[in-house]
Write a structure and sequence with these properties.
The complex is a heterodimer of chains A (270) and B (255). With 270 residues, chain A is an all-alpha fold. Chain A has 13 helices and no strands. In chain A, helix 5 packs antiparallel against helix 6. Chain B has 255 residues and is of the alpha/beta class. Chain B has 9 helices and 10 strands. In chain B, the strands form 2 sheets. Chain B has a 6-stranded mixed beta sheet, with helices on both faces. In chain B, strands 2-1-4-5 form a 4-stranded antiparallel beta sheet, covered by helices on one side. In chain B, strand 9 and strand 10 form a beta hairpin. In chain B, helix 3 crosses helix 4, helix 3 runs parallel beside helix 5 and helix 4 packs across helix 5. Chain B is globular and about 55 Å long. The N and C termini of chain B lie far apart (38 Å). The N terminus of chain B is likely disordered. The chains are: A mainly alpha (270), B alpha/beta (255). At the A-B interface, helix 9, helix 10 and helix 13 of A face helix 2, strand 6 and helix 3 of B.
């Protein structure tokens, strides 16, 4: 600032100007937060969102039934989706034309449809088509698997293509068959590459598992969202929603941490 | 299968690799224009030539990493270009070393050496481990058995790649510019391992730019340019007294 005093006409240096702009941004941010805090009705917020009496009634069912079911539905859907995605990806990369067309068709179809539509069509359609009503778990697994698998197929395909061609050639040179080379050498490396996007997909499926409510569930089939919605209506209060929101974070945040660890570990090996 | 008989004689009967009238197109581009080429058991053949001359493609045709467009390749008398040939069994008998090493990065050095022994040759764990350790010692890297490839220098990686190929007990070895991706000070170690191999009587086909290696170790030097073999013969003749104008030009540039 002494410079400015000595040479009053000179404009501020770009770096000083950037620092000033940054301080202004911080100041505005603080002002907005303070204003919101002053305007908000904290008593009402606490009653509507954080009623401890209502929250305590939710336990232990919110954990033992709702959280458990969310994790279970997601795990089933992800497992099926991963297997389906791998098969679709390999078909997509196949030299056999019909395999490529079929896989492209399935991927485009289920990537393009809203998950809700898939749930509905499977929930109503399977019984009409085959005359047997599959369990809700079957429908969740199929619906989440088809939607997730379509996305994962493209991710897996990109991962396989990202493994250097020399890896496949080296494996073949050692006498491995095409299948052996893919299973032992290429696919394990592909999965290392695509671990972050696959985790993303798992987190998306965790949230999509809430769509199962459309099937009509019995009490012990409730997952987090259905459970929270029911409790919200019964109490005319939003506290259950806050509770289940925290439960979702209980799943997704540790997942992110685990994957970051795995990435760091495989990063060392690469 | 013994490599003790060293017959530098180039008669067709003793040829382990016999390439006849080989053509290879990439699209409309004819990369190999009728190659006749053979290697006798125990022979070390160095293939030299400018980049784009087709020498790597020729090498890669020998174990069918590239599919020849036409022509015949016999390995140990078996016609591998025959559609009925068992290519996987053939490749297991031919070791190959790449310019870019191509070690498996998700496996330890030891696992790199044992995985194909177990999965392809169906050897037991103990046996593959023993063979792997023997070959690691041979290339002087016993202490790196549990390291991952990323933790090794380029020269060490290439020596592991050689040990990996040797662990399959191949009848012959193909080297595709094995030292071209290495820092100059690391080249010597890899060439030393290759010299040892040659001295043991291994049949070797080496695509290389290392003229001193070719002069010292090769039984035969082949000079390729523009998809044809321009000149071949003893290293002293091809490198010391080239007859063909294109060979002279090439050597003048690289030596």
């Amino acid at each position: 600032m002494t410079d400015a005093a000595v040479v009053p006409k000179k404009r501020m240096s770009p770096r000083k100007r950037a620092a000033l702009v940054r301080y202004i941004q911080y100041a505005v941010l603080v002002l907005v937060i303070v204003a919101l805090a002053l305007v908000a009705d904290w008593g009402e917020i606490r009653r509507a969102f954080a009623d401890l009496d209502i929250a305590s009634q939710l336990f232990p069912d919110v954990i033992l039934i709702a959280l458990k079911n969310t994790i279970f539905y997601t795990a089933c859907g992800f497992a099926f989706g991963l297997a389906l995605g791998l098969v679709l990806a390999l078909m997509r990369l196949s030299s056999v034309g019909p395999y490529r067309w079929i896989s492209t068709g399935i991927i485009e179809l289920f990537r393009g449809l809203p998950a809700l539509v898939v749930f509905l069509v499977l929930g109503l359609g399977l019984s009409l088509a085959f005359g047997v009503q599959p369990s809700n778990l079957t429908i969740v697994t199929l619906a989440l698997g088809l939607v997730g698998g379509a996305y994962m197929a493209e991710t897996i395909r990109a991962g396989i293509q990202a493994v250097p061609k020399g890896q496949y050639e080296a494996a073949r040179t050692l006498g491995m068959t095409h299948t052996r080379a893919m299973v032992t050498i290429v696919i394990p490396q592909a999965f290392r590459i695509i671990l972050p996007p696959l985790t993303n997909e798992l987190i998306l499926l965790t949230k999509d598992s809430s769509l199962v409510y459309i099937l009509g569930l019995s009490l012990d089939e409730y997952e987090l969202t259905a459970f929270g919605r029911e409790a919200m209506n019964a109490n005319a209060n939003l506290t259950p929603m806050v509770t289940i929101a925290l439960c979702y974070l209980l799943i997704t945040v540790p997942l992110s941490i685990v994957v970051r660890r795995m990435e760091a570990k495989s990063g060392r090996a690469r | 299968m013994t490599q003790t008989e060293t017959t530098p004689a180039a008669d067709r009967g003793a040829a382990v690799i016999d390439v006849q009238n080989l053509h290879k197109y990439f699209g409309d581009n004819e990369v190999l224009k009728g190659i006749d080429f053979h290697i006798a058991r125990g022979e070390v053949v160095c293939v030299i030539g400018p980049s784009g001359s087709g020498k790597s493609t020729l090498l890669r045709c020998v174990n069918l990493l590239e599919e020849p467009t036409s022509g015949t390749i016999l390995v140990d008398g078996d016609e591998i270009t025959d559609p009925d040939a068992d290519v996987d069994a053939l490749r297991a008998r031919i070791g190959m070393v790449f310019q870019q090493f191509n070690l498996f990065p998700h496996m330890t050095v030891l696992r790199n050496l044992t995985v194909a022994q177990e999965k392809v040759l169906k050897r037991g764990k103990a046996e593959s481990l023993e063979i792997a350790r023997t070959n690691l010692e041979k290339v002087g890297l016993s202490d790196k058995a549990d390291a991952y490839p990323a933790h090794l220098s380029g020269g060490q990686q290439q020596r592991v790649a050689i040990a990996r190929a040797l662990s399959m007990n191949p009848d012959m070895m193909l080297f595709d510019e094995p030292t071209s991706a290495l820092d100059p000070e690391l080249v010597g170690d890899v060439l030393a391992v290759m010299k040892d191999l040659a001295a043991e009587g291994m049949t070797m086909m080496v695509v290389t730019h290392e003229m001193s290696f070719a002069r010292e170790v090769a039984d035969k030097v082949v000079f390729m340019d523009g998809g044809v073999i321009v000149e071949e013969g003893l290293p002293a003749d091809v490198l010391g007294n080239p007859q063909h104008e294109r060979t002279q030009e090439f050597l003048a540039r690289v030596l």
